[in-house]
Design goal:
Two copies of one chain form a homodimer. Chain A is mainly alpha-helical. The longest helix of chain A has 24 residues, at 98-121. Helices cover 73% and strands 0% of the residues of chain A. Chain A binds chain B through residues 98, 101-103, 105-106, 109, 134, 138, 170-175, and chain B through 98, 101-103, 105-106, 109, 134, 138, 170-175. The first copy, chain A, binds a DNA duplex through α3.
Chain lengths: 175, 175
Amino acid sequence: MELFAEDGFEATTVAGIAARAGVTERTFFRHFADKREVLFAGESLLEKVFVDAIANAPAGAPPAGPLLAALDAGGRALQDERGRDHARARNEIITANEQLRERELLKLAKLSHAVTTALVERGVADVTACLAGELVVLVFRTAFTRWIAPGETRDLVELQREGFAAVNDLARTGT
Amino acid sequence: MELFAEDGFEATTVAGIAARAGVTERTFFRHFADKREVLFAGESLLEKVFVDAIANAPAGAPPAGPLLAALDAGGRALQDERGRDHARARNEIITANEQLRERELLKLAKLSHAVTTALVERGVADVTACLAGELVVLVFRTAFTRWIAPGETRDLVELQREGFAAVNDLARTGT
DNA sequence: TCGAGTGATGTCAGGCGCTGACATCACTCA
DNA sequence: TGAGTGATGTCAGCGCCTGACATCACTCGA
């Protein structure tokens, strides 16, 4: 991330990253599938947090219960893992490069799909689960954007709950 | 597309594509930014159709008017341009390869963004325009998937209208 | 204690994607 | 007719990524 921030993503070579890390270029590719994955390495862990939260949510709760549980768990994990400043720096790198934005979209789509699958395994109907998967990621993404906005001090989890409630209101009024 | 269908996307080289087309590899890269773009070349035209339809939609109509106009125009363009069988073949290639799925997500995100911008230029509020942009692409994507399903014979435009109506109902009942 | 097995790393060669720089050629138009 | 323009070819080269093999540290059971 130091190198990306200095020279930009495209201008920094894998050889450069490997040298900075004190390993060989070949070793780099044994840890990361490709150059972009360096910035998305933790993503599968986040996915696991979402999925586990859904699987472990109490059974009798309202249908939105697992969704909120997943968002809370995921938001907290993201917040505790590296903190807001790290997220800001990472985000700046990603938004500055189209290849990275592309990869981020793929990761979010996978997250959505994972949530959907986890819901289906709880017995939620396919269509509902699919919509809920999209919804969870939408709320997550929106809250994340607000969370890393300059000057923002509120909790990510708090912002997620607010976003989720706003979507609920929207759907209820039905405009 | 012949080569991709035969050997898969990764196994076919740009040199091979260029040779089949009777040009040099260098010439290929003057027409397409990268190897994946061969399959997404018409995408910017489709985007233009959506945007133009929104810009030219009648002024006094209900707020959903421009959205339906964009979907109708886009759906019709896609349908007339190459036809359903071509769409099916193309889709099969794309879904079989992660790099291509990734690129498709980027193109859809750009389409959504273009729709949002077009709506903002008509005076629609930012948040509303953003949601509408996501909505249009959601309906488009869903209808497209149904359109190319095996055995499906209905019009793409028809499927889009049905999907749009379904979303409207969902929002109205507010479950 | 030793030797086999295992996993992480280094080394090397090489294919493929992609680009810059320059040359060529057909075509247009004053 | 000759200058300008745009598309293509040619060539060299960088950077990404992979397969194959060697090395080394570490573990664990005989």
